[in-house]
Amino acid sequence: MDYDPRASLHVEDDQQTLEAMSTSEENLIPQKKHIPQFMPEPFILSSNNKRHSNNNSSFDDYFLGPRELDRHSKWPMLLRIHGSCLPELVLPLLVVGGWTTAVCLFSRHIHDLGISHTLLTVLGFVVALSLSFRSSTAYERYMEGRRAWTTLGMVSQNFARNVWINAVEREESAKEDLLAKITALNLVVAFAQALKHRLRFEPYTHYSDIRDLVQHLDTFAKEATELEPHREDRDPPSFWKSWGEYLGISFAMSNPRKVLKRAKHPLGNLPLEILNHLTVYVNNIMAAGCFKANIYQTHALSSVWIMHDIMANTDRILNTPLPLAYTIAISQLTWVYILILPFQLYTTLGLVAIPGTLFAAYIILGFAYIGQEIENPFGHDVNDLPLDDFCNQIAADIDIIAASAPKDSETFVKSKNNRLMHPLNHGGYDVWEDQKCAAEVEE
Length: 443
Fold this sequence. Notes:
It comes from Lophiostoma macrostomum CBS 122681. This is UPF0187-domain-containing protein. This protein is mostly helical. Helix content is 59%, strand content 0%. Among the domains are: 1-66 and 168-290 and 383-408, no CATH class; 410-443, no CATH class. Helix 4 (118-166) runs antiparallel to helix 5 (174-199) and helix 5 runs antiparallel to helix 14 (387-401).
């Protein structure tokens, strides 16, 4: 079906629009009418997602994320930089290279600082065990985040399909019930967008992908947005700050929660408030008798409950990182091992210990930085989950569900194009409906 996703719902088109979107059995071909797109424009992303800004260079696109799933690179994995931890390792490797060179030159020209390999073996085992624990813990959190968003996509489809098909409009208020359905489907998309922004510490409602979906709701975030017109991200970061972030310098990185800390008004919990509105809608259609079976009511309430469970799980992942003591100990142990490595390698390798130490440092620090990056899978790093794409997919799926009116089964069961015996026979339903053919089928 070909329709303009930017079409708006104009007042003068209200009558035509409602007739086109009516879910009565008399109107089963809505694609012949004008159907407004009531979901956000596909692939419209957060104003805070810098890699999609037209004002940023391709250099920014290369080092900021999350990565776009539809992009294909023909470069072999060995030569790829996008998504690699190499940019964050440039400065640490320079430090390690300078330190190793100094140790080797001092040992060569002044006094031999070489030590036994015993320490290398013992510490190597401990470092490997620590990095394995760090990586497995971070990847587990990454996959938990992915499972949560997979569940959100599934429950969003189930809720939308249940409401769109099973909630029947009342004859005396068919138009109002239809518009209420559309509002509820919009709230499902709004919940996904609000959850994404909450996980990224973006608590307001001025972002382009959620503004039009929640501006009619009475929420704390909306009030705070109206009362605080001067918000974050007005001024782009300086050149040095940007480069510091690219290179992983901790002193150049901003506190991701600074927006929450600087808020002067209550920010509330926008996803939770949206669920409140969804629950009110479900209660209203249940009271009005729009659901003809109790199981439909149970499914609707269960879907809202699952959305709440997803919100709680993602909040747990976000706010329960690896205990700080573990993080500090692993970082210190890793650096101690790397810094004493040239003392142990020089005795056997000589000056070759310089590239050998750099290679070992790249491997060890690489795994450490990867674990640090994916520990929070909801941010803007290249390897983080593409939450914008997930939200767009949810909106697109709900568009598909609501793109056509609920059909009676006879419209497709009795179609002449229904090839009942494919691939054995190409006869349509009208052919097999014949009594003679029906007898053959029974035989």
